[in-house]
Write a structure and sequence with these properties.
Blueprint (H helix, E strand, L loop, with lengths): L29 H20 L11 H25 L8 H41 L5 H18 L4 H4 L1 H10 L10 H29 L17 H18 L7 H18 L7 H49 L3 H15 L1
Helix pairs in contact: 1-2, 1-7, 2-7, 2-10, 3-4, 3-6, 3-7, 3-10, 4-9, 6-7, 7-8, 9-10, 10-11
Length: about 350
């Protein structure tokens, strides 16, 4: 299948928004407009739910879990939209299929990178567990072992992940994919492309946030300029400004993830005490600090587990949609029939 050529770049970096409201091209019926408006209203509500009440909620594992759930829901909504539009795959423009398949494979790569980072962070839990176990004794020998475990944890967490570092080039490609394919003859196709644009913007933004959170760097961040003609644009801009602004404030720290930062603070407070560098401390006070580290460690572990499940779910959503489209192209079946068959297969495997 041939790829669309990048001959002349649009003046608008992410597609010409006025093409959506131009009188030229296919006329969108009132019924199709209702479907599109309902889709975009749901997208806007989803974005609103991600706007935290305070900056302290940003970059927490719980917020990231909600963000990944929102991505799963939006990508599932695209599948539902295709059903409502009754737009069979054989009516799809080749460029739409190219865009869908190209984006899906990049999203699968990003999911794999995120999963590897979550696994790496979870591996540090064993070192913290060993340190906490040794801190249960007042023996100086056990304290030495605890120090060794804490040293190992800091080195492990600060070592970096090559897969996360490669996310930058993937995100650059996804940014370029935001440019909308032209729709000349199909009103339903025009609705589908506009809906997909909203989901692509949400996806690129949140994936760039995850990449920045995991790397502690702002180099993979994107400030997307979305035209105001989209009903969800003001909400998206508010969310983007708030989240990206907080990432820039935290950039350069040992970590910008909330739960990881709490663990690191406890480790920094505890480390000089068990090394004997600081003045003698009462057993009760030491137990309090150890208890705080234990609770922070458990909260970090639980948050990583929940986020890992959501990243895995998103991987399956993307994979199911991709497989359904490929199956439809081969067999001539409808896209939604292939999706439903894929979902049944996934349930059997699970």
């Amino acid at each position: 299948m041939s790829r669309a050529q990048d001959a002349n770049r649009s003046f608008f970096p992410f597609g010409n928004p006025f093409r959506m409201i131009s009188p030229k091209g296919p006329k969108i019926s009132s019924q199709l407009l209702l479907i599109l408006h309902a889709f975009e209203a749901t997208l806007e509500e989803r974005l609103k739910k991600l706007i935290p009440k305070s900056k302290d909620e940003i970059l927490s594992l719980s917020w990231m879990t909600l963000a990944m759930q929102a991505l799963c829901e939006s990508h599932n909504d695209i599948k539902t939209l295709i059903t409502e539009l009754e737009l069979p795959v054989h009516d799809w423009d080749e460029k739409w299929i190219d865009v869908y398949l190209d984006i899906s494979v990049k999203l699968l790569d990003i999911c794999i990178a995120f999963s590897s980072e979550l696994s790496r962070l979870n591996q540090g839990h064993l070192l913290l567990h060993c340190a906490l176990h040794n801190l249960g004794s007042s023996s100086s020998e056990q304290y030495v072992r605890a120090c060794s475990s804490l040293d190992g944890w800091k080195q492990h967490i600060g070592s970096g992940n090559p897969r996360i570092e490669k996310c930058g080039s993937i995100l650059d490609n996804l940014l370029r994919s935001l440019d909308l394919p032209k729709v000349k003859k199909s009103a339903k196709g025009k609705v589908l492309m506009q809906a997909m644009y909203g989901v692509k913007v949400q996806t690129v933004f949140l994936c760039s946030v995850f990449a920045a959170a995991f790397s502690g760097s702002t180099k993979n961040m994107s400030d997307l300029d979305v035209a105001d003609v989209y009903s969800w644009a003001p909400t998206f801009k508010s969310l983007q400004d708030l989240v990206n602004g907080e990432i820039r404030v935290r950039s350069g720290r040992f970590t910008i993830l909330n739960e990881l930062e709490v663990v690191d603070s406890s480790v920094k407070e505890l480390y000089p005490i068990i090394q004997g560098v600081s003045d003698a401390i009462e057993t009760e006070s030491l137990a309090k600090i150890v208890g705080e580290l234990g609770r922070a460690t458990e909260k970090l572990s639980q948050g990583l587990d929940l986020l890992t499940k959501e990243v895995d779910s998103f991987f399956q959503v993307v994979l199911t949609g991709r497989d359904a489209l490929l199956s439809s192209l081969r067999s001539g079946a409808t896209f939604i029939d292939s999706i439903q068959a894929g979902n049944r297969d996934a349930q059997i495997v699970n």
